[in-house]
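Recall from the previous lesson that a structure prediction takes nothing but the amino acid sequence as input. Here we apply that procedure to UBP16 hydrolase from Psilopogon haemacephalus. The sequence below is the only information supplied.
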Amino acid sequence: ALSAEDSETAFCTLANREDLNLEEGSVQYCLYQFTRNEKLTETNKLLCDVCTQMHYGPKKNIKNEKKYVYTNARKQMLISLAPPVLTLHLKRFQQGGFNLRKVNKHVKFPEVIDLAPFCTSKCKNVAEGETKVLYSLYGVVEHSGTMRSGHYTAYAKMRNMNNNLSDLVLRGQSSQALETEPVKGQWFHISDTHVQAVSAAKVLNSQAYLLFYERLL
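The prediction returns the following tokens.
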């Protein structure tokens, strides 16, 4: 059961979600939808042990499930621990009857993304008072083709080592504040044995399937 304090902060985030200027078809929009506040009503009502005990007494007195009390509730999935490396997997298939279809729509993704609007206000490894949880893009996996056949290629950024990542992995927190700009480096496109230097603009225009970000702040 939640305490009164937990109940008050259960749906609070590090940064105000409603201030976001979201563009449909972007990764931020996807995250917003994935972490939206859902109402559980009618057939989705939540079985409430407290309500049941108040109505029928202790559980041992309940002999069949029909006597359990179900109540309206709210549900929200938020990030409780900001990872050192953020991996986002985009669902690029759609089911229609018995058929699966590849989704080729371009999903916009930034070089630097802020997870604060999607983190619980009590995120375990974020400093008190911090309202940003920033990540810098360093890798993209792209799939071309259809559900039946296709080809995977990757974009990777050659950059200086982010020493603070080891602090995040080993101690759960960074030893110092990091830059809020993308980590500087050169992007490369890797396709089997072929490697070619490319611009950041080409990377951001790719049809991403997997996105890899490293923690900045």
